[in-house]
Amino acid sequence: MDQVSTTQFCHDQLALVTSAPWIIPLLLIAGFVGWKLKGANDEDEIRGLRAELDVAALRLELEREKLKAAGTKQRKPRKRISGG
Description:
Shape: elongated
Number of strands: 0
Order of helices and strands: HH
């Protein structure tokens, strides 16, 4: 691991990249593809979290309607403390 931090290693890697100019476009393409895949994955995760939030809001509204129909006094919900 000490080899990576040496100036000789950096010089060798720079020489490799400059000797093969086709590496740079491939690195750019790979970076772009990875960035797009990560973005798509993040969008799916956000969409799932929003769906969970919508379900929780609907359940809360349903419980409030049940309490109202039963004629009981509503109390404020306590905050949940995550153990995480």
